[in-house]
């Protein structure tokens, strides 16, 4: 009888814990703990990696991603993109963190080529549109579909031809073979199909709910591990990425 109440209490306590812990540790938001948990389980970002962070404001994932790059002499890059103005947090970020104020849905290969000529080792998307909650599942799939498209060139067919014409990554995308992809998704109609659409492109696909998500939230993270070389999967592109 008491279990639901106890579970809610435990979750609330954990959330307060993440908020307080973020402040104490110098992360700009509790979102840091979401990526830290995903990283702990799946080792998304390796030392010296090139990372694309879509929807990066206020910057907690930039902080965590930069920490994972290891010492400065290992190299690496974290490119943060957001609709809003992006300020790079001083704590945990160094000059390997670059930012761009842009709509990820309108990113072009030419823009990304200014930051990397050979793609990214990891692409993470925590993009979220603030809404009344009416069609948030659909909006989350739109944004996750954008991240999947940037990563692999896979066109996730939600809006038909009109959407397809807006994007420029229809061939192989910007995620290197062996690279990893993380996308925030809201559970609901269409999410199972979305996860299925990832499968041809990755060695392993997983869904992950994280402790730091708010208790009422339907969010989870779709994780694609070990991108297959373009041409190995069923859809889009062959040989070298056409960007
Ligand atoms: C939950 S916040 C991200 C938090 C971030 N991961 C962090 O650690 O601080 C979601 C972000 O997605 C951004 N966003 C939403 N739609 C976007 C789009 N189409 N292109 C780029 N950014 C977008 C929002 O502006 C917002 O800053």
Automatic annotation (TrEMBL):
Keywords: Methyltransferase, rRNA processing, S-adenosyl-L-methionine, Transferase. It holds the Pfam family FtsJ. It comes from the Eukaryota. GO terms for molecular function: rRNA (uridine-2'-O-)-methyltransferase activity. Residues 27-227 form the Ribosomal RNA methyltransferase FtsJ domain. The active site is at residue 184. InterPro entries: RNA_methyltr_RlmE (IPR050082), RNA_MeTrfase_FtsJ_dom (IPR002877), rRNA-MeTfrase_E (IPR015507), SAM-dependent_MTases_sf (IPR029063). Gene3D superfamilies: Vaccinia Virus protein VP39. Belongs to the class I-like SAM-binding methyltransferase superfamily. RNA methyltransferase RlmE family. This is rRNA methyltransferase 2, mitochondrial. The lineage of its organism: Eukaryota, Viridiplantae, Chlorophyta, core chlorophytes, Chlorophyceae.
